[in-house]
Design the sequence.
């Protein structure tokens, strides 16, 4: 259960506000940037894939929700995001894992499963590759 009065919760929200302020006042966007030319269906698909129930199902769910062939989806996502669908899904799963590690006391194995990773070893490998530490050490440093 997430406790809204917990210091980590306040810290997380403060970091989000700072990130939004930095983005609004210090970054400009190039009109030729592929992110600015993303088709609306792809934006909607990525928004739908941010839902945990879709992330848990992974690539198969992404292909099911996409109004195009899997190969077209792969090409377009790689062109715009610089990632394959699997890389994108794993990135989003890891973001959710970080949130759960910071905001809950759930067991790491439970978090792994909740985020859609069926292989604990693969979860640890991706987490360490992305953040440089294991999930347990990450939790201790927050």
Sequence:
């Amino acid at each position: 259960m997430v406790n809204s009065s917990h210091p980590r919760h306040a810290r997380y929200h403060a970091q989000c506000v700072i990130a939004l302020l930095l983005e609004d006042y210090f970054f400009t966007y190039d009109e030729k940037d592929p992110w600015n030319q993303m088709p609306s269906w792809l934006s909607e698909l990525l928004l739908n894939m941010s839902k945990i129930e879709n992330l848990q199902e992974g690539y198969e769910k992404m292909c099911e929700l996409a109004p195009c062939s899997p190969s077209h989806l792969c090409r377009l996502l790689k062109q715009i995001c610089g990632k394959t669908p699997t890389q994108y899904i794993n990135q989003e799963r890891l973001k959710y894992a970080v949130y759960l590690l910071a905001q809950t006391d759930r067991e790491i194995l439970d978090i792994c499963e909740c985020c859609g990773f069926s292989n604990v070893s693969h979860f640890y490998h991706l987490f360490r590759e992305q953040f440089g530490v294991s999930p347990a050490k990450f939790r201790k440093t927050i």
